[in-house]
Amino acid sequence: MTDTAQNVNLQYLRTRLGRICVAIIGSTPHEMLERAAEAVRENTLLEFRLDYLAKPLAAMPRLKEFLHLHREMTAIATCRREANGGKFDGKVADEMEVLGKAAAAGFHLVDIELQTAETLKQADWKKIRGHSAAVLISYHDFKTTKDLDKIYARIQPLHPDFVKIVSTARSLADNVTMMRFLEAKRDEGNVVGICMGDQGIISRVLGLRAGSRFTFASATTGEETAPGQIAARTLRETYRTDQVDAGTRVYGVAGDPVRHSLSPIMMNTAFHRETVNAVYLTLQTEKIADLLLLIREVPVHGVSVTMPLKQEIMKHLDRTDVLSQKIGACNTVVRSQDGKLIGYNTDVAGIVRPLEQRIDLRKAKVLLLGAGGAARAAAFGLKQKGAEVFILNRTPQTAQKLAREAEAKTIRRDQLVKANFDLIVNATSVGMTGMKQQTILEEKELNAKLVFDLVYSPMETPLLKMARSKGLAVITGAEMFVHQGAEQFQLWTGKPAPREDMWRVVTHALRSRVEG
Ligand code: NAP
Fold first, then answer.
1. How far apart are CA 158 and CA 119, in angstroms?
2. Which residue intervals of 44-87 are DSSP H helices?
3. In terms of Cα–Cα distance, which of 328, 296, 334, 299 is closest to 314?
4. 393 in ligand 1 pocket by Cβ < 6 Å?
5. In the annotation, is 310 catalytic?
6. pLDDT tens digit sequence for 301-326
7. Catalytic member of 185, 310, 326, 385
8. Which CATH code fits 348-475?
9. How confident is the model over 351-364, as a mean pLDDT?
10. For residue 425, what are the contacts with CB-CB under 8 A and spacing of at least 6?
11. What is the pLDDT of residues 48-71, one digit of tens each?
């Protein structure tokens, strides 16, 4: 192909590139093409991971036929060798043979790893460049995010049509490094940048806004080709990645672990429903300095704070509300117009609101199980509403301390059989999926009209099942979860939260977890 024809071809290619590239895997051509046929219904940019095929060369006629049939699609051919983190066990020459055949079969781009590209001779380039396929030179760092400019400088002399630099995020700050790099290269219009790993989700969602030409996604959950990769539909429907623009406000849940948090699905649904230009992400970190840097640099407009940062963040905030101060923990940060960080505790509302819809808390006699963070929110919230609170905890000293601070009482386990309460609140983690101990009380100790279990995963805890079988009214932890999230939404947006939609997606996700 002549240089002019190549340039025209490249210009055309750039105009038709989608923003989400779906990686397609399969060990046989049949499996790969079946997945591609499914993906191409919703996506126009597909990467065929030829290194996943047992015999990539033998698959070429069927791939060619597929490309011919789906002219709406732009296709990238990748045949990453094992040495570069792929599945292909051939040599550089074998990889180049596969990619050369892919270019001849009609693939629009071929992905050549930098380490491979640096060893190629003029004749190898001629074979690849002899077809209309554009060359994407990629670099993968499976350990860190560093030296992005140096890597770019190594790629440039090889005259790539597209550049792809993929690193691994070891901190939230690594996403900032990647986004600053993308911003600096935005005008080139041909650079793709992503951080892999659980901490790299920020770059996957915000990378396009920073200037990445496109981003990568898996076809479905379970078909990921890189750590931290997100399914295309989740990127599009939950995070609405292709709509994130300069005006999009960024929020997130910070702590460790947050990978399986339901907050992103709940909050992104709420933002979408109320047409708020905002996106909500998982911000996985246990380091407060890392979180504060991200808040400042992105900037992040609001954070749901979870373990282990709820207490520690307090001293880094410019202001906190009275309840957070009493409880000694904050679960919500609002970033004001002038960059000040203000802390609130919406766990209290999450506990008190569902109760007020059912009982009169004034003078209600409450048994509170636990003395950790959630129990502290319950104790202060219930006392503020005029309830009489009796605390029981595995470690009696913490129960006594909380009782003193919240002006509540303590109670011994042996006193429960003969006691009567209006309400029992479980604020221990007993009953949570994965916990060895599943029931905090015996049936004969459940002497109350109403039982509220703050544990929300699973939604139907053993304690709630026992209470229901005894004919008692119950409140699930999912209700607290939605109420505390709704309060956060209101603090961040000033709008009433779409509680019903939030409840619908959270309970649906929790039920799917049980079925899954
Ligand atoms: P935390 O600060 O770690 O406190 C855990 C509490 O559980 C402590 O009182 C602890 O007693 C007790 N505990 C743990 N294992 C126990 C066992 N085997 N037997 C008896 N007691 C045990 O945790 P947290 O933040 O308060 O959270 C507690 C629960 O509330 C978690 O399941 C969490 O998911 C849930 N929560 C739900 C929501 C919601 O939105 N629904 C919000 C926040 C929390 P010791 O003091 O003796 O260790």
1. 11
2. 56-69
3. 328
4. yes
5. yes
6. 999 999 999 999 999 999 999 999 99
7. 310
8. 3.40.50.720
9. 96
10. 351, 366, 367, 368, 369, 378, 382, 452, 454
11. 999 999 999 999 999 999 999 999
Residue 302, beta-bridge partner list:
251, 334
Q: How is residue 194 annotated by DSSP?
A: E
The domain defined by 3-246 folds into: TIM Barrel (3.20.20)
Using the atom order of ligand 1, give the atom closest to the CA of residue 370: 9
Q: Would the CATH topology of 3-246 be identical to that of 251-345+491-515?
A: no
pLDDT one-digit tens code per residue, 233-287: 999 999 999 899 999 999 999 999 998 899 999 999 999 999 999 999 999 999 9
Task: Report yes or no: 108 and 131 within 8 Å, Cβ to Cβ.
Answer: no
Torsion region of 452: left, alpha or beta (phi above 0 gives left; psi -120 to 50 gives alpha): beta
**How far is C-alpha 387 from the chain's CA centre?**
38
Q: Cα separation of 156 and 148, whole Å? A: 12
Q: Looking at the domain 251-345+491-515, which fold is it?
A: Rossmann fold (3.40.50)
Q: What span, in angstroms and rounded, lies between the C-alpha atoms of 139 and 113?
A: 6
* Helix, strand, coil percentages in the chain from 3-state DSSP, rounded to 5: 45, 20, 35
Is-above-0.90 flag for pTM? yes
Q: For ligand 1, say whether the CB of 477 is within 6 Å of any of its atoms.
A: yes
The gap from C-alpha 306 to its chain's centroid, in whole angstroms, comes to: 14
CB-ligand 1 contact for 316 (6 Å cutoff): no
pLDDT band for position 408 (50/70/90)?
very high
CB burial of 129-138 (b: ≥16 within 10 Å; e: otherwise) equals: bebbbbbbbb
State residue 139 phi and psi, 5-degree precision: -140, 130
